Amino acid sequence: MLKELPILLVIAFGLAFLVKTFVVQAFYIPSGSMENTLAIGDRVLVNKVVYKTRDIARGDIVVFNGVDSFTPEVQITPPSDPIGKVVDWFGRTFGFAPPDERDFVKRVIGVAGDHVVCCDSGGHVTVNGVALQETGYLYPGNAPSTMTFDVVVPDGKLWVMGDHRAASSDSRAHLGDPGGGFVPTDRVIGRAFAIVWPFADLSSLPIPDTFAQPALDKAAP
């Protein structure tokens, strides 16, 4: 049995790596931009195959690569020694360490064709003229946005925002950049669907009810 243990460990890690690469990945939350929904140090599970069976939906919490569209929110100094690099790779692979600084987690507010505006007379973000009731997930005391914007989401793109609006460098902060603040759908890694650490916060991450308003689709162009 002891002779077989190294082989079993290699197989176990190999299977875990394949699952992480193609199915589900643990992701470490490195910033407070999604508080209080997600706190710094939380680990979430990211479904990497869900968007092969359905479109990205408003209200989804997505992890995406922000290269060429977003500026890093955290600065991570990679280790320079070989052992440190191996430990760092292992930690990122299995969600024990902060991810690449180019990876972000945000909530999808608008999908292709949506007209997203801030703000209406009541101070709400609107999508296709429909006000989003966001008190259920916004950071306590935050306004939906202190920055005004009026955008139509292009094909193949997303408009994303953090739940901690006052501390999130999201689509609003990149309006003047070449990508216009939009995230290409092909840069989305997957959908965060559950918090798995710390155990006291174990929970799912459903789409908030405000995004279930039928008028959002009826009003879409």
Task: Characterise this structure.
With 221 residues, the protein is an alpha+beta fold. It has one domain (25-218): Umud Fragment, subunit A, CATH 2.10.109. 16% of the residues lie in helices and 25% in strands. The chain has 3 helices and 12 strands; from the N terminus they run αβββαβββββββββα. The chain has helices spanning 5-22, 82-93, 214-218, and strands at residues 24-28, 43-47, 61-65, 103-110, 115-118, 125-127, 130-131, 149-152, 157-161, 183-184, 188-197, 203-204. The strands form 2 sheets. Strands 1, 2, 3, 4, 9, 10, 11 and 12 form an 8-stranded antiparallel sheet that branches. The mean pLDDT is 83.
The percent of residues in helical segments reads 10-25%
Number of structural units classed as domains: 1
- Strand elements, count: 12
Give the full name of the CATH homologous superfamily: Umud Fragment, subunit A
Q: Average pLDDT value?
A: 83
- CATH top level is Mainly Beta
The number of distinct helices, counting runs of at least 4 residues, comes to 3
- Low-confidence runs (pLDDT<50, min 5 residues)? none
| Beta-strand percentage range | 15-25%
Q: What about the largest sheet?
A: 8 strands, antiparallel
The structural class is: alpha+beta
The dominant shape is: globular
Give the second-level CATH assignment, the architecture: Ribbon
Please write the string of helix (H) and strand (E) elements: HEEEHEEEEEEEEEH
Rg over CA atoms: 19 Å
CATH topology: Umud Fragment, subunit A
Distance between the termini: 64 Å
